[in-house]
Amino acid sequence: MGAVTAPPAAATSATGASFWAATRLVAENEIRSVVRTKGFWITFGLILAGLFALSILPGIFGGDPPTVATVGAEAEQLVSEAGLDTRAVADRAEAEALVRGEEVDAAVVPDPTGESPVGLRVVGLSGAPDELVAALSVAPPVDLLEPFPVSDAVQALVALTFALVFLMFTMAGIAIAQSVVTEKQTRIVEILVATIPVRALLAGKIAGHSILVFTQVAVLALATPLALRLGRQPAVLDLIGDALAWFVPFFILGFVLLGAMWAVAGSVVSRQEDLSSSMSVVMLLVMGPYFAVIFLRDNDLAMTILSYIPFSAAVAMPLRLFADQAQPWEPFVSMLVLAVALVVTVLVASRLYAGSLLHTGGRVRLARAWSGAE
Amino acid sequence: MLSLKSVSRSFGDRQVLDRVSFEVAPGQITGFVGANGAGKTTTMRIILGVIAPHSGTVTWRGEPVTQSVRQRFGYMPEERGLYPKLTVADQVTYLGRLHGLDRATAQRRTARLLERLQLDKRAGDPVERLSMGNQQRVQVAAALVHDPELLILDEPFSGLDPIAIDTVLAVLRERARQGVPVLFSSHQLEVVERLCDRLVIIADGTVRAAGTPQELQTRFGPQRFELVVDDDAGWVRDVPGVKLVDLDGPRAVFDLVDGTGASAAEQAVLREAVRRGPVRGFSPVVPSLAEIFKEVV
Q: What is the least distance, in Å, from the CA of A216 to any CA of chain B?
């Protein structure tokens, strides 16, 4: 029954240490419980497979140079100089037969009519073989006064990919909400709250899921050069390198921002069944940037605004940089806005989380959660 | 020594606790008794810092209860909670580590505790595959794994079969013997009677009585005696200062009527009985806890 107590200073430092220790333990537990599920590995495997498919398949289906049947030495020389595969045949009839049989993509034959200025004719099956014609044509050089650095098709693809990656992985934040509800539903939260600071619980959850997602993104980022090399498209890497470098920090901040909101969405309900209703707002904030960027990609003003809104900045700002539409200082300002929004959101979220965590029954109104935290 | 001083708490307009004060001493098992809604769970949640009191203080060894102090408490909440997918051993180890144990110690203590609670064969099973009774044992293990300095258990025996009750009881007694103050709540008065060294009775948010069962019995129980003689004992009802409660031929049970000069009347009954013939039995009747409880509330 002795009144032995630690001196106050030691007690304070013990509290400080235990906050981080608790955060780390919670994060570890979250990671372990996710990694243990099959669904996690299946999903990640599919995403990885998708990345390789996206890089390699275009090369297999559309990327091969056309094969051309040639009649006569002149045609053969010309076509092979253009860098295309040639297949020399005896006469036009044989060449046409190959084209009809789809064994070659087109044929180049001598022009007996004299109609052609170069003395050759191109034979195709159902449409003009543009690639072959372009390779054989001579065009005057073009000087662009305001050249667009990246082709529109590539821009669209990159926009879609960034938005998709952001969408997929921020949706993975749903796991945070589910984990919060699981603890509420099973009531283990009461033991947790009695043992560690509520904010350590929140921080550990967000940290654990963030580490998981960042690791997945890092693996994807490392696999991308490999996939592009396998798909013989190394040039794409040079193009997206800068945008990718900005995308990563924006993505990290953006994910944590939404992670805090997922946690609140989980804490205001008491059962998994009620989760979908409380998650709808966060879902909107995740889907919003995805669709906005896809539909408003050509609208400079809209993209400028989107690149400063914290929820869409992670996608919009790297894309504007990619398209050379942003000043060099802009990403820094946007990131500052995002960081401030992040700090405010985390502070508000941790209060809402603490205020609603022990309420059971119906959905907790945010105002009540706010005043419930004491 | 855990000490609550004048702790009050309300939810909205409803006053749930009104100036609750009591102490839980080391080495003693203190039973916290009250009807549903009397304020037991709220009091325990306040001790554990799960909710805050609106006024009053909770101190442990004379110091306010902070987060780091609380980490050394063991708590078993009324609404049981465990991670359904986690295995029994992982679960207990994780909670041990949250209480500040390092991994090796947590694992060692988990193994020992599961064996003690006869759960070692289920250590690798996910909790959701266990029966309710076994889940309850896991919950006990979770509250004990870090060798807490203080144990707070909310209805630890509800849902347990008699054998499990004995196992858990033995574990709690062992902790109390080591000097750990144990506070547990229950509405099963028979269990409380068997187990606890001290009692705190709460009703409508106020402490109505506290003390050892014997203290409470002498303080609140009516002074009741049983007399057994050879012949009919009906004459007892005519002795002044005595109220006959039960008569069954030669056996009479009577209370002393208050305000008649303490314990003189039962002696008068005994003298009269001896005068009339042989006395086969004469003893005070100790009221059960349930009777005291009814009296107090």
A: 24
Q: Are A68 and A132 in contact (CB under 8 A)?
A: yes
State residue B173 phi and psi, 5-degree precision. Answer: -60, -40
Q: Are residues A217 and A124 in the same domain?
A: no
Q: Answer with the one of A99, A134, A169 that is the final residue of a domain.
A: A134
Q: Locate the chain B residue with the closest alpha carbon to A183.
A: B83
Looking at CATH, the fold of the domain delimited by B2-218 is given as Rossmann fold (3.40.50)
Would you list which residues of chain B are within 8 Å, Cβ to Cβ, of chain A? 1, 25-26, 45, 48-52, 61-63, 66-71, 73, 75, 77, 79-86, 94-95, 97-100, 142
- In this structure, the answer to whether residues A238 and A351 fall within a common structural domain is yes
Q: How far apart are the C-alpha atoms of A250 and A228, rounded to whole Å?
A: 24
Considering only the beta carbons, identify the residue of B67, B80, B81 that sits closest to A15.
B67
Q: What is the CA radius of gyration of chain A?
A: 30
Residue B277 falls in which region: left (phi positive, over 0), alpha (psi -120 to 50) or beta:
left
- Local structure of B228: helix, strand or coil: strand
Q: How far is CA A290 from CA A154, A158, A313, in A?
A: 17, 13, 11
Instruction: Find chain A residues with C-beta within 8 A of B26's C-beta.
Output: 1
Tens of pLDDT, residue by residue over B109-150, are 999 999 988 888 999 999 889 988 888 889 889 999 999 999
CB-count burial class (<10 Å; 0-12, 13-18, 19+) for A348:
middle
A358–B51 C-beta distance less than 8 A: yes
Q: Mutation test of the interface with chain B: which of A4, A188, A196, choosing the one with the most B Cβ atoms within 10 A? A: A188
Residue A141 DSSP SS3: coil
DSSP β-bridge partners for residue B200: B32, B210
Q: Was domain B219-296 assigned CATH 3.30.70?
A: yes
Helix (H, G, I), strand (E, B) or coil at B218: helix
Same domain, A277 and A183: yes
Residues of chain B with CATH 3.40.50.300: 2-218
> A250 and A302: one domain?
yes
Give the integer Cα–Cα distance in Å for B105 and B88: 16
User: Residue B39: phi, psi to the nearest 5?
Assistant: 120, 10
Q: What is the mean pLDDT of chain B?
A: 87
Both A79 and A218 in one domain: the answer is no
How many residues make up chain A in this entry? 374
pLDDT in tens, A343-364: 998 888 888 888 888 776 667 7
Confidence check on the interface: ipTM exceeds 0.85, yes or no: no
Q: Is A363 found in the same domain as A250?
A: yes
Tell me which chain A residues have a C-beta less than 8 angstroms from the C-beta of B80. 187
pTM of the model: 0.75
Q: Is residue A199 located within the same domain as residue A344?
A: yes
Single residue among A89, A106, A134 that ends a domain in this structure: A134
pLDDT for B78 beyond 60: yes
Identify the three-state secondary structure at position A24.
helix
pLDDT digits (tens, 9 = 90+) for A219-278: 887 887 788 777 766 666 676 777 777 888 888 888 999 899 898 888 888 888 888 888
Asked whether residue A261 falls in the same domain as residue A339, the answer is yes
Containing B61, the helix (H) or strand (E) segment is none
Is the model's pLDDT at B215 over the cut of 50?
yes
Domain that holds residue A238: 151-372
CB A190 to CB B99 under 8 A? no
Q: Could you give the CA distance from residue A189 to residue A266 in angstroms, rounded to a whole number?
A: 13
* C-alpha of A209 from chain center: 17
